[in-house]
């Protein structure tokens, strides 16, 4: 069968690579793809934008695609799955109504409260309803979030009420365009953040391996928030007991609640969680797709055929399948362009990819393009170097060996990915 992957980032490169490895898959199309997907065996880039839903539907018809997997959030939030279903085409992801869990943080907070799912106390404002006095009464620090889609950058931790007010006003004034028309301000939660991702079929869930990412730009979890600077799997923090608690207190109530409200959820469901010192899993956010960069180490460890799992979910039969995982750990280091996450420089030649290909592990492309036979930078997060090893420490060494073999002017990557897991890995 043919598979279509919608998107052009590191997550989509990993999805295409994984699907192309399945014996039942004859070809994987990626729309629009990048320089990495262009070089994969049995993978073909197609020059269609990930948000051009009508053309994607026609592409899937013309190419007789048997399964489409949507990578990024924007087409999901705008209704790509609804359009594919209306055309009689298989498309793995949530429909537009359910994808509001990511498309509107205000909607997500209200949903969490309605269904008793633990989350931070918060208030939602528009520019007209904004209450500066309320903000000043809250205990700092405060977390200010643009309610809409902001490419993972619309979250600011404000050290004071005045900073929170200024941040909210900047969002209202167009810092994140439409995404900032509504702003959520919530209490700051102490603890450790983990990513918990499942597949859902509207009723049943299949948890993926645990993972944990690093959102801040610089070592020591300093600097601005980004889309993610690295991730690893498994996450030692998520014990069997905590895993069961997350399923019981977060995932099952969310899937049940969505079904009760008339929008059953099929697709990848990502819960970004803050694990409190007492073990309570509080929901920071929901994403309606796989996380990036969590996808890259997760799919390095997945031994099962991803297309079989997706088809089982689309048929409402996730309870009849299981996922098999490599027992080794995987760790990914994101390599970013100069200027990320603000204005980034594009068009730099990437050197060393051939050398990296001879090492253990895998480099997934994100913001890259081919020009005159050379691979150039073409976005903020450019590559993700993923290593495998017997534990997190070994996977980390393999990942940094890959990262250190590649270079372009201004390349930036953290040197401490996985630092939270290292004590647990040594224990």
Topology at a glance:
Elements: E1 2-7, H1 10-20, E2 27-32, H2 35-38, E3 43-45, H3 53-62, E4 65-70, H4 73-78, H5 80-86, E5 91-92, H6 100-103, H7 105-114, E6 122-126, H8 132-137, E7 142-146, E8 155-158, H9 161-172, E9 182-187, E10 192-201, E11 205-207, E12 212-213, E13 216-218, E14 222-225, E15 230-233, H10 240-260, E16 266-275, E17 281-287, H11 295-301, H12 306-314, E18 329-336, H13 353-357, E19 362-365, E20 368-371, E21 374-377, E22 381-389, H14 392-404, H15 422-426
Parallel strand pairs: 1-2, 1-4, 2-3, 4-5
Antiparallel strand pairs: 6-9, 7-8, 7-9, 10-11, 10-16, 12-15, 13-14, 15-18, 16-17, 18-22, 19-22, 20-21
Fraction of residues in helices?
Answer: 25-40%
What name goes with the CATH superfamily of the largest domain? ATP-grasp fold, B domain
* Coarse shape: globular
Question: Quick one: how many beta strands?
Answer: 22
Strand order of the largest sheet: 3-2-1-4-5
Structural class: alpha+beta
Strand content: 25-35%
Number of helices: 15
Tell me the distance between the termini.
45 Å
Low-confidence parts: none
What is the class of the largest domain in the CATH system? Answer: Alpha Beta
Domains, number:
4
How would you sum up this structure, described in words?
This protein has helices spanning 10-20, 35-38, 53-62, 73-78, 80-86, 100-103, 105-114, 132-137, 161-172, 240-260, 295-301, 306-314, 353-357, 392-404, 422-426, and strands at 2-7, 27-32, 43-45, 65-70, 91-92, 122-126, 142-146, 155-158, 182-187, 192-201, 205-207, 212-213, 216-218, 222-225, 230-233, 266-275, 281-287, 329-336, 362-365, 368-371, 374-377, 381-389. The chain is α+β, with helices and mostly antiparallel strands and 427 residues long. The protein has 4 domains: 2-95, 3-Layer(aba) Sandwich (Rossmann fold), CATH 3.40.50.20; 122-187, 2-Layer Sandwich (Dna Ligase, domain 1); 192-320, D-amino Acid Aminotransferase, Chain A, domain 1 (2-Layer Sandwich), CATH 3.30.470.20; 329-426, Phosphoribosylglycinamide synthetase, C-terminal domain (Glycinamide Ribonucleotide Synthetase, Chain A, domain 4, Alpha-Beta Complex). The strands form 6 sheets. The protein has a 5-stranded parallel sheet, sandwiched between helices. Strands 12-15-18-22-19 form a 5-stranded antiparallel sheet. Strands 6-9-7-8 form a 4-stranded antiparallel sheet, with helices on both faces. A hairpin with a 5-residue loop joins β16 and β17 (281-287). α1 runs parallel beside α11. The longest helix is centred in the middle third of the chain and has 21 residues, at 240-260. The radius of gyration is 21 Å and the shape is globular. It starts with a strand and ends with a helix. The mean pLDDT is 95.
């Amino acid at each position: 069968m043919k598979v279509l992957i919608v998107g052009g980032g590191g997550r989509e490169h990993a999805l295409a690579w994984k699907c192309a490895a399945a014996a039942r898959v004859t070809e994987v199309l990626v729309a629009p793809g990048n320089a990495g997907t262009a070089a994969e065996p049995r993978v073909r880039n197609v020059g269609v934008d990930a948000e051009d839903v009508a053309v994607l539907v026609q592409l899937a018809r013309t190419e007789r695609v048997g399964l489409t997997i949507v990578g990024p959030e924007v087409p999901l939030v705008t209704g790509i799955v609804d359009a594919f279903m209306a055309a009689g085409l298989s498309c793995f992801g949530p429909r537009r109504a359910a994808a509001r869990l990511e498309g509107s943080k205000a909607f997500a907070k209200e949903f969490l409260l309605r269904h008793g799912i633990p989350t931070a106390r918060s208030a939602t404002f528009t520019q007209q309803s904004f209450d500066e006095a309320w903000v000043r009464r809250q205990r700092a620090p405060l977390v200010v979030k643009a309610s809409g889609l902001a490419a993972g950058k619309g979250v600011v931790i404000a050290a004071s009420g005045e900073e929170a007010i200024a941040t909210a006003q900047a969002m209202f004034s167009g810092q994140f365009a439409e995404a900032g028309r509504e702003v959520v301000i919530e209490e700051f939660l102490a603890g450790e953040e983990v990513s918990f991702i499942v597949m859902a079929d509207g009723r049943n869930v299949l948890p993926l391996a645990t993972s944990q990412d690093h959102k801040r730009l610089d070592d020591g979890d300093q600097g601005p928030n980004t889309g993610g600077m690295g991730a690893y799997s498994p996450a030692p923090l998520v014990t069997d007991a905590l895993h069961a608690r997350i399923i019981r207190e977060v995932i099952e109530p969310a899937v049940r609640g969505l079904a009760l409200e008339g929008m059953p959820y099929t697709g990848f469901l990502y819960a970004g969680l803050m694990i409190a010192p007492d073990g309570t899993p509080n929901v920071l956010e929901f994403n309606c797709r796989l996380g990036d960069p969590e996808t890259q180490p997760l799919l390095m460890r997945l031994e099962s055929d991803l297309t079989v799992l997706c088809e089982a979910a689309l048929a409402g039969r996730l309870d009849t399948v299981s996922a098999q995982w490599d027992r080794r750990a995987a760790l990914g280091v994101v390599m970013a362009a100069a200027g990320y996450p603000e204005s980034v420089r594009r068009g730099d030649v990437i050197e060393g990819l051939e050398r990296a290909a001879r090492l253990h592990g895998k480099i997934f492309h994100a913001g890259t393009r081919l020009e005159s036979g050379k691979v150039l930078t073409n976005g903020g997060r450019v590559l993700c170097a993923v290593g495998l090893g017997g534990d997190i420490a070994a996977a980390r060494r393999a990942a940094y060996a890959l990262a250190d073999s590649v270079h372009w002017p201004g390349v930036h990557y953290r040197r401490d990915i996985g630092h939270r897991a290292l004590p647990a890995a040594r224990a």
